[in-house]
Design a protein that fits this description.
- This protein is of the alpha/beta class.
- The chain is 36% helix and 16% strand.
- The protein has a 6-stranded parallel β-sheet with strand order 3-2-1-4-5-6, sandwiched between helices.
- The chain is globular, with a radius of gyration of 14 Å.
- The two termini are 15 Å apart.
- The mean pLDDT is 91.
- The structure holds magnesium ion.
């Protein structure tokens, strides 16, 4: 993908199943590893607290492929607020337009990242009712891409699989 230097991921339900009873999300480690190895900066921007986020990243086994983990310092920093996005681009030394944001929630992840100037991918598992509604406004605030499997992010980035 042109001009993209960094890929930021939401954590819950994008990389890690939010409910423990759910099955693990497929292809997480492989996808993150390939993105990192093809030269992109990689980050996680999560509404989890920092302890919980690092524990989940540990379980996923992706520590070595993630450059930054951004979590809220106060509840007011949680997505869809943009404070964490500012911290992420500053730490990675990139502009918003050089970032691809991957998430599962339209408001917290996609709208907020898009309004911040990032490119966005929505991970679509079940088409939720409010998603259907919002797709009507796709051109303005909808995701740039919709995928149903994390590994499809590689196709969009044109990373060799
Ligand atoms: Mg999520």
């Amino acid at each position: 993908m042109k001009n993209i230097k960094a890929v930021l991921f939401d954590l819950d339900d994008t990389l890690f199943p939010f409910l423990k009873i759910e099955k693990p999300i497929k292809n997480v480690k492989l996808t993150i590893q390939k993105i990192k190895k093809s030269g992109y900066k990689v980050g996680v921007v999560s509404n989890c607290d920092s302890h919980e986020a690092s524990e989940k990243i540990n379980v996923l086994g992706i520590n070595n492929f993630v450059d930054i983990v951004i979590t809220p310092k106060t509840p007011y920093e949680k997505k869809p607020m943009r404070k964490m996005f500012f911290r992420a681009i500053k730490k990675l030394n990139v502009k918003p337009c050089q970032v691809l944001f991957v998430g599962d929630k339209l408001i917290e992840d996609i709208w907020s990242a898009k309004l911040f100037g990032m490119k966005t991918i929505l991970i679509e598992k079940k088409l939720r009712i409010y998603h259907k509604m919002i797709f009507k406004f796709k051109s303005i605030l909808g995701p740039d891409f919709v995928v149903n499997d994390l590994s499809k992010v590689l196709n969009i980035l044109k990373v060799r699989q």
